[in-house]
Amino acid sequence: MITGTPKPIEEILQMLEPYDNIVLAGCFGCVTVCRVGGEKEVEVLASTLRLAREASGKKITIKEVCLERQCDPEYIETMRPYVEDYQAVLSIACGAGIQFLAEKFTTTPLLPGINTGFLGVTERQGEWAERCQGCGDCVLHLTGGICPVTRCAKSLFHGPCGGSAKGICEVDKSVPCGWQLIIDRLKALNQMDNYCKLKPYKGWNSSRDGGPRRIVREDMI
Amino acid sequence: MIMGCLEGNCHFVNGNFRARARVQRVHNILEKINIGAGRIRMFNLSAGEGAKFAAYANEFVDQIQELGPSPINVARKKEAKNVPTGEITA
Q1: I need a surface site. Which of A35, A117, B1, B88 has the fewest CB within 10 A?
Q2: Which of A9, A10, A57 sits opposite B75 (nearest CB)?
Q3: Residues 6+ apart with CB under 8 A from A55
Q4: Does residue A123 lie within any of the structural domains?
Q5: Chain A touched by B71 (CB under 8 Å)
Q6: Is the complex ipTM more than 0.90?
Q7: Residue A144, in any domain of the structure
């Protein structure tokens, strides 16, 4: 899922300073699962903002909504009948959702209520960790299902660097060496021959280096 | 004022610890928006500790009184004073 963290309330209040009538939009997608932008978070943030603004003597009206997904046009359209009645939209969906709202509602300012993080997994309740950088050229079949791009701090492709010690990465004691994980897993799978295969240079043009990416599925158009 | 079971005695194993974490979150929010972090507090006690409950309640009342009126009430009263009543004053 796409993860994120709430923006500091002071930052949100500063963004909202010019407005007294806004829509606060959540999303039932990834940000609901990682507990940063779902229906409950909309309610908590709206209450917080109302309290803060009332205490400062400058009340704010907030319409609370939570869209099925902010990254799909049909759900965004459900906001169209009323969005122009408000001065701004504060979205606590991921960066993709916020931008899509901004594209669709061109005359209404869109404000981000969260900082979008990474593509990750729920390791345990309340703890998420990165697993994929969306490089566009997956090699998980060769690396025991562990991504060298994401799990190695340097995104190395041919084994650990000199900063790996006792299975720990030099960037942080809490970070396991991605290549140690890969080698351990390959040994367990009896696939160490994969480690010995010389891999060609990775083409990063399918990653961010090629600019904003697009997927077109002719069979679905 | 939030009351939870004694630590380690929760019927839901760690429910009171999770409640404490959530209370802390609200505590932080109230502090950041200048409402006053002291307006929320969690206590742990067992169902048989009636006297302790009364003591905690009194303690919290004292704490709230010491904090004074909430900024929300102050703002509301100020706003009510500014609303024109329609009375004609000579």
Answers
A1: B88
A2: A57
A3: B33, B34, B35, B70, B71, B72, B74, B75
A4: no
A5: yes
A6: no
A7: yes
Predicted local confidence at residue B79, as pLDDT: 83
Same domain, A146 and A53: no
For residue B5, give how far its alpha carbon lies from the nearest alpha carbon of chain A (Å).
Answer: 22
Selection from B9, B5, B38 nearest residue B19 by Cα: B5
Out of A118, A148, A174, pick the residue that ends a domain.
Answer: A118
For residue A209, give the 3-state DSSP assignment.
Answer: helix
Instruction: Please check the confidence at residue A73 and state whether its pLDDT lies above 90.
Output: yes
Task: Domain of residue A78: give its range.
Answer: 2-118
**Above pLDDT 70, what percent of chain A?**
100
Mean pLDDT of successive 10-residue stretches along chain B, which has 90 residues = 91 91 95 93 93 96 94 88 66
Which residues of chain A are at the B interface, by a Cβ-Cβ cutoff of 8 Å? 8-10, 13, 48, 51-52, 54-57
Domains in chain A: how many in total? Answer: 2
Looking at residue A99, which CATH number applies to its domain? 3.40.50.1970
Lowest-confidence range among A37-41, A175-179, A200-204?
A200-204
All residues of chain A having their beta carbon less than 8 Å from the beta carbon of residue B29 are 9, 48
